[in-house]
Amino acid sequence: MNWILLRGLTREKGHWGDFRERLAEAFPQQRFHVIDLPGTGEYFREVSPSTIADIRQKVQACAAPIAGPVGLLGLSMGGMVALDWAQAEPERVARLVLINTSTGFSPPWQRMRPAALGKALGVMVRRTPAVRERGILALTSNRPVTPEVKENWLAIQQRRPVTFRNAVAQLRAAASYRPSSAAPAARALLLASAGDRIVHWHCSRILARRWQWPLAVHPDAGHDLVLDDPQWVVSRLEAFAFGNQAPAPDVSVP
Q1: The pTM is what?
Q2: Which of 51, 94, 138, 249 would you label with 144, given CA atoms 20 to 30 Å apart?
Q3: Which residues pair with 4 in a beta bridge?
Q4: pLDDT at residue 124 tops 90
């Protein structure tokens, strides 16, 4: 199966680090593709739409050459795009993995924690790329970040800068997103971080309870779960996506 990886707000393919390679090594029978959202990565010169549906349509067009059925793995806002895609094109999307995402089914103060909102806005308006990227890392990761990661994230921003206009458009799209009430046909898995300081993990629990989806919660990782503990993500994917058994719910926090 072809898998498509979708990153979150103002992030791009470079921010996956070596996660795609980890997936390819763990699951050699699968194929993994990374597509940037409009306004980021290779599309950083484009104007980002301000709705998830419009962002999803552009991503769908970019993914048209990839043979289906496909699996979608989305982190944060990338999870919203993946969910919208699964509802819009059920015959194409067979698997769905949503990591630290949120929807309009959750209250606003869980979708964006109040303490994080001010920090996020402060980070967005800073004009120095180094200060901005350090601020994003400090907000999204709960682990000591290596100098290599810091240098890589700064280099990405310098090569393919996300404009303030596009950041605001993406923030507006994420804040206003509410999926259709019917569950997608795709087999789905939810992954969340109890230590997420941006999106409360209860946003994932609400989806899990609403649509009877399995949910695994990491005890202390931050919002960028694939940066903080990529091996944990790979291990949770194994039975769900590439095995025959459905994983038991893995929730160990209240």
Answers
A1: 0.93
A2: 249
A3: 33, 72
A4: no
